[in-house]
Amino acid sequence: MSIPSSGLKVLVIDDSNTIRRSAEIFLKQGGHEVLLAEDGFDALSKVNDYEPNLIFCDILMPRLDGYQTCAIIKR
Q1: Are 32 and 53 spatial neighbours (Cβ–Cβ below 8 Å)?
Q2: Which of 12, 35, 48, 73 is least crowded, fewest Cβ atoms below 10 Å from its Cβ?
Q3: d(CA 75, CA 27)
Q4: Can you give the pTM of this predicted structure?
Q5: Which residues are bridge partners to 54 per DSSP?
Q6: What are phi and psi of 9, to 5 degrees?
């Protein structure tokens, strides 16, 4: 997969605000467009509209964990 000159659309899913913001800063410095979600349900509401090229997902999250979130997104 080649990276577009404008960067990737990246969705970062993590219940830790510190992790989300750190990832956002790092990815934006790399020229990528970043969308943040605080849990699996928040991510599911954004993933269809946003259609990210790449998703970073925490595994241990309240309400809907990372494994469940990924399984639903995969469908």
Answers
A1: no
A2: 48
A3: 26
A4: 0.89
A5: 10
A6: -95, 115
